[in-house]
Amino acid sequence: MKHLGISGGGTKISGLFGAAEYVMRDRQYQPEIISGISAGAILSLPMALGKYDEIKQLVLNLEFDSFFSESPVSKKGKIRLWNAFSKILNGRYYLGVQKNLEKTLSTVISFEEFEAYKTNDKLPICIVGTVDFYTGKRFYFNLKELTYDQMLKMVNASASLPIFTPGVLLKGPIKDFEGEGSKNDQLLLFDGGVRDHSPSAKVLSSNKYDIKESATIYSRPDDPHDFIDHTSFQPSNLLTILERYVDITNNEISKNDELIEQQVMKDKGIKDHGTVFLPRMTQGVYDIDQARLKALYQGGIAAAEAVWSSELFV
């Protein structure tokens, strides 16, 4: 089986899509498994269904309304202070509500399309990663084993950043892609990036599937100095500190994910089609500047082309 892993990355989704589009459409790499976390989870099913034009239109024209029914940040990218004060005074543990992500995804993939997908063995399995905040356990779900409503919720959960969103509360027990069930009667699911920036190490480590070939797309640059840029950081407000925390955490988790992934492929003899890293272009977790989104999309294509044009991976 062939596998493609797509990391998290917030609104860096445009670059992740550009790289994945190049690998799957231009290079005709047809994975039987697509795994994703956060932004990668959002992309997984549309990519499996070949909805390149629809998802391109979405990621290059992101608005906060694409995700949030109640945005935690203003159009200028700053935390809405009165909204934050109101949440704190009312005992809320989140700054915004991300219900619109489920609505947006439902406009790309209909109930009928999803039901047909579940029974079509020729279409890739999609596995998305989340984290349960009651137990700290990772939960990776096979979307083909879920209902339409569950699929929307799991993708939303995978992209739900703690503090910014309330996560997704589900009644258990529920099973992950390996058949392991939850022991609690409820789960509070958040961004899979809390435990894994990339889904590849988890999926490749599993004995559930006989994976022979793999490729991974990371939203971070290859050079960590490019990822954590000291020249532009100013601790001027709460949002900059939260975003810096996310950047540093993701960078460290991501480097560890990459090391484990490479070791697993070596131990199992899995053919490595290369690791694609994105250039640093967007500013912050929630950057919806259309010029930067477009530049990152093109950067994703160029990064994937550089890796896949190398004779090492032909």
Could you characterize the architecture of this molecule?
The protein has eleven helices and eight strands. It has 314 residues and is α/β, with parallel strands linked by helices. Strands 1, 2, 3, 4, 5, 6, 7 and 8 form an eight-stranded mixed β-sheet that branches. Helices cover 41% and strands 15% of the residues. The longest helix is centred in the C-terminal third of the chain and has 31 residues, at 238-268.
| Low-pLDDT segments | none
Report how far apart the termini are: 17 Å
Q: Whole-number radius of gyration? A: 18 Å
Structural class: alpha/beta
Kindly estimate the percentage of residues that lie in beta strands according to DSSP.
5-15%
Order of helices and strands: EHEHHHHHEEHEEHEHHEH
How many H/I helices?
Answer: 11
Mean pLDDT across all amino acids: 89
Largest sheet: 8 strands, mixed
Shape: globular
Task: Please report the total strand number as a whole number.
Answer: 8
Which helices and strands appear, and what pairs or packs with what?
Blueprint: E1 2-6, H1 13-26, E2 33-37, H2 39-48, H3 52-59, H4 81-89, H5 100-108, H6 111-118, E3 125-132, E4 138-142, H7 148-158, E5 168-171, E6 186-191, H8 200-205, E7 213-218, H9 224-227, H10 238-268, E8 271-277, H11 290-308
Summarize this structure as a short list of keywords or feature phrases.
314 residues, alpha/beta, 41% helix, globular
